[in-house]
Give the backbone structure.
Amino acid sequence: MPNMTGSEFLTSIVNVYPEPIRMIMTGYADLNAVIDAVNNGKVYKYLTKPWDSDQLKMIIDEAYNTYSLQQQQKKLIKDLLRVNEQLEFQLIQKSSFE
């Protein structure tokens, strides 16, 4: 990329797009870049070139499963909050009739 590294790009979009699973594939093995990407760019996996196709497929499947579980968790929390609000409303209604 002409103006920034992949790690810098991922760091710059974390607040705008917090949900995607981020991965970096590079031909460079700079330990500081790896640390920066993981810590600041919220990188799920850091892959090096050349890659093994079977391993890459496995990592992508794992990332998809992780993303799916995160989305399910968000939905369950939302559902739980909604049910909790309904229960609180019912308690208020019940206590006002007593």
The longest strand covers residues 43-48. The beta strands are 22-26, 43-48. The two ends are 68 Å apart (CA to CA).
